[in-house]
Amino acid sequence: MSEWIKATESLMEEDLKRLSGNLSKIRSNRISLEMIGDLLVDYQGKKRRIKDLSSLRANSQRELIIQFSDQKMSSIISKAVLNAQLGYHQSKSTGNEIYFSLLPLTEEIRNDLIEKVKKTTETSKVDLRNSRQKIRDKIKKSKEISQNEQKMVEGEVEKINKKYLQEIEELGKKKIQELKLT
Length: 182
Prior knowledge:
- The chain is α+β, with helices and mostly antiparallel strands.
- The chain folds into 2 domains: 2-26 and 106-181, Topoisomerase I, Chain A, domain 4 (Orthogonal Bundle), CATH 1.10.132.20; 33-102, Gyrase A, domain 2.
- 62% of the residues lie in helices and 18% in strands.
- The strands form 2 sheets. The protein has a 4-stranded antiparallel sheet.
- A hairpin with a 2-residue loop joins strand 5 (88-94) and strand 6 (97-102).
- The N and C termini lie far apart (46 Å).
- The mean pLDDT is 88.
């Protein structure tokens, strides 16, 4: 029975992590180093992530600072950040650093982002239901457990599903609240 619970927990934990990652990529009025770091740039003929080519940090003035060693990268990185349309604008540039600040969220943009959070959360709930169904199908096909054990395991799977469903809803609510407060 514990193997089924472990499998369920594992699948549903993956769904939760995927949602968390997706929500972190939705812009708020906070600088997201993760979102910028994962942007791809064409450097020396290869697609590379910004975080692999430079160091990222935020300063106390709420600016994103990208520091790099090769000055040729300045225009490449700047273009990638601006073209990603994540709400950043370049505020200044020094020899090997570029400073970006976030544009303020308008009410229209905020509402669009809240809708995106809701859709992302709903997609995650569907993924969770699909994970639950995969486990149920495997349990039903298993010849190793009796019908009584099968019912007990399905009950445990349902409890785990409810727990992760609540966590998904909490992550969505937290992100929406973050957007409303900014």
